[in-house]
Amino acid sequence: MDIPYTVELRRDTGLNNGKIGIWLFLASEVMLFGALFATYILLRTGAQTWPRGDTILNVPLATFNTIVLISSSVTMVMAWASLMRGRFGTFRLYMGGTVLLGFVFLVVKYFEYSHKFHDGLFPSTNNFLAIYFTLTGLHMLHVMGGMAVNAYFWGPGAKQWKTDPAWFTNRVENSGLFWHFVDLVWIFLFPTLYLL
Amino acid sequence: MTSDHAAASDHAADIDKHVRIYITVFVTLMVLTIITVLIARVHLPIPIAISVAMLVAIIKGSLVACYFMHLISEKKLIYAVLGLTLAFFVVLLALPALTHADGYWIH
Amino acid sequence: MSEHAAVAGAKPHAAHEAHHEELGFWRKYVFSVDHKVIGIQYAVTGLLFLFFGFSLMMLMRWQLAYPGAALPLLGRILGESRMPGGTMLPEFYNELGAMHGTIMVFLGVVPLAVGGFGNFVLPLQIGAPDMAFPRLNMLSYWSFFLGGVTMLASFFAPGGAAQSGWTSYTPLSVYASSGQTWWLIGMVFLITSSLLGAINFITTTIQLRAKGLTFMRFPFFVWAQLVTAFLLLLAFPPLEAAAVLQLMDRVAGTSFFLPTGLVVSGQPLTNAGGGNTLLWQHLFWFLAHPEVYVLILPAMGIVAEIIANNTRKPLWGYRSMVYSLVFLGFMSFIVWAHHMFMTGMGTAMAAFFQTTTMIISIPSVVILTALILSLWGGSIRFNTPMLFALGFLPMFGIGGLTGLPLGLNVADIPLHDTYYVIGHFHYVVAPGTIFGLFAGVYFWFPKATGRRMNETLGVIHFIGSFICMNVIFMPMFLLGMAGVSRRLYDGGAAYDFAQPVLHLNVVSSWGAWMLALFQLPFIFNFFWSIWKGARTEENPWHATTLEWAAPSPPPHGNFLQVPQAYRGPYEYSVPGAAKDFVPQYEA
Q1: Residues paired with C161 in a beta bridge
Q2: Looking at domain C33-257+274-549, what is its CATH homologous superfamily?
Q3: Fewest CB within 10 angstroms: B79, C202, C310, C330, which?
């Protein structure tokens, strides 16, 4: 059956269902990461000593990753803009770029983590590392989730462009909102963990 | 169909403007990233370092939210949901910390 | 844009045609995306878990009434590791206690109240064809189901299920046996289910309401579910984060909740330490306080519908009730540390939380008062739903009033963690919420099945349950005020000061076992009426809200014609009208 306002906008709210749904989901994610930031605050304020981020973590690598993630946000929004302009080929390029940049982010993270483990630094070593691994680990799971959705829209999901372009464009926009949120979290994670 | 094409080309001009904004925001974000890393090297006293770093992060985050996520031109309902969320986010961050700062007679 | 709509119109039509092909058994009844099927799945699963959780308590009540006595038959079945010689081990008592709470709250009440009633009634009551995201809806049910299976499976873990209270306080829970890990994993599934459900409910309510159904024309039930959904959406994630942190402590050796200098069973901590054990309590109660409003709000919504319908009068103070509901939802996020008054917090923050807690009692009182005042001058019909709705009122009153000393930090000192607390919250949830849910079952059964439940059995169910619940929980206030702590596996028998009140444990236990007997008429009635109940038309209660416009039971898509709302939700006894009710959906 057809659910109303899946694509068309409802007049009094000016929105379609998916847009509201994704923002509600992002609101819950704010509270999820908020709890971990609250944890960070309590652990740090309760600690006798707390290491400065750059004494343990690799700032240049993380700066590179920050640039990678921000760039992927740009390619993501350009992918959606391409669909709005009706340019499917360009969409494919930008969306592919987004997935690729996400992959680069993950590869860098892999090196970061394995370097830590190699140096005998684990979540159990101290609370700084515990919250570092947990925050960046949960963030990384979100990157993977976002990439899976983006890859779907780049690949098998893209055939919806032929049958229902408006709905497809909206879905790409919504997955873009999730991806930008993942970038947003990193924008706060990076200075908190690495620079302070 | 002609009205559809007209709407589409208006749309296209609109998108062009947006794309220019996206590029500007991207460059700004890069610059702010470099700035925040460079400031961190100065090793300011912790409270100031935290304030500056968070300020830059908030600016960067706002740019992503307002322009990449189109929040600057969103509908009232979304603003209302996010406003509520922000309020509770602040409560979650502040109240446990305040409770501990108020002091516990058990340590 | 209109071309887009025209193009979009053609596609859904094609999709509509495709949907007319008959779905196989599995797609129709098991993996359905229809909100009515999902609602019934949630309701039946929730009811089963309610009875299972109740059974755990009935077992505990044997130990509490007759500490150390061997339980005939059942004792032997449960095995030597739990009940050697039929006598309950303290560890097993703790397992039963922790799982009773967890199952009742997360697997019983919320799935029934929100997943069951919310899913089934909400789209119908707003005139929608289904939820905004039907596939997401199905996903939330199965996520709940997986969480339930995980929780049940945890009983078979070595060392048994979780046994650190439903509150899983650290550091005890960090050192508990593997069942606790299953509990944490189960919670992640359950929380995911609630989050997905909340997204669906909010979007559906705002976007899919019928033409003419403005917010202030919503039935109170819709408002209750909407506020509840916001509570679930924003309060659950911190507990999910906390569960991950506790999992890390248990499995990855971190010390999020393990303070430096902790000594466990004479052994000093080998972990890094530096953790904050109260952090768990903050994150847990940040959810768990709004959670108690998740438990009560849907029931208040149900009771409001039934009272308006069976007094043949509009609700008194509808606007005040709605504003109170919204205010209550907001306040519920800033009162949580009243559960932590005894952790040694400073006076400033204790005063803050005490103040917000006192303030939050106001909207509750407004809502209860409005419901009571709604009875005045009504033509009251004493059918089974109404009996339960009426019973709810004084019971919720007692539950609410007894909460006041607990919310005042000084009065809380002698009462915290005693049976007084157990009495307080059970009054709100058991003869409170559960009565509301029973009322809802009797009330909406005709809509879901096209048949009515038997009234006589319903009255027996009500009278028996009402008396037994008071027999169980009233003595607990006395037990608590005498100083008997909760979670004592012998019910206080080891303490001198408790001796004069110990007999009350026997009273409560017999009340519990009698309560179980009085559920039998209900269980029988429920299943018998599905096949043999008296057939009914679409609106047997002569009610005004939109769900009664649909056939009983409603088909896929719910309404034969797209409904529209022409007036408010409670136009009963309108002067000059032909009948004593004017439905919302009648032009």
Answers
A1: C179
A2: Cytochrome c oxidase-like, subunit I domain (1.20.210.10)
A3: B79
